[in-house]
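Translate sequence into C-alpha cells.
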Amino acid sequence: MEDFHRDEPVTERIAGKEISMWWRTFLDHNTVTGKLGCIFGNYFWKKPVMVIGGVGLFLDEENIFVPDVMIISNRESIHEDAIYGAPDLVVEVLSPSTMRRDRTVKMKKYAAAGVREYWIVTPGTKSVEVYLNQEGTFELDEVYVDFTELELKAMDEEERQAVKWQIKVSLYDDLFVDVKEIFEKV
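Result follows.
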C-alpha cells in the first residue's frame, strides 16, 4: 500500500509556539472521536448548538488549537474559517504524541478562556476524565471507565456499585452519555 502524504502538517499554536502534529491518528482515536460526534450530534439535532471537531479554535493570538470535538452554543463564535472564542465543552481524545500537552498547557488555556467542561478520553484504558471549570481552572469531577467483565469480577461489591456508566454532561439537564457506547468497537 502506498504511503499517504499531506503537503502541510496540522499545526497548533500553544503559548505563541507553533507545534506540528502528525495528521494521521490511530483507528481507536478516530472511532472514539466519531462516536462522540454522533452521540452529541444526535442530541443536538435541530437545536441551535454546533457539534464540530478537527477545525481551528482561536482562543487568542497565542493559542490556536484543533480539538477533537467541541460543543458550541454561541453561534457568533462560529466563522467560516474557524471557531473564535471558548466552546462550552471540549473533548480531547489522547494520542501518545499529544497527551502531555492535552493534560497540561492546553487544559490550562481552555480553562482560562472559559471552556465550561473538558473531557480527556483515553482509548487505551477506555476511560473518560470529566473536568468542570471552577473560576478559571479545571477540577476533576469524575473518571468513567468501561471496565471489562474480568475487571468487574476482581472488584468487591462496594466497588462494583460505585462504578458509573452514564456521564452526565453538566451543561444540559437531560444529556447523558453511556461509557460503553463511547468505546464500542474499540
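Note: The mean pLDDT is 89.
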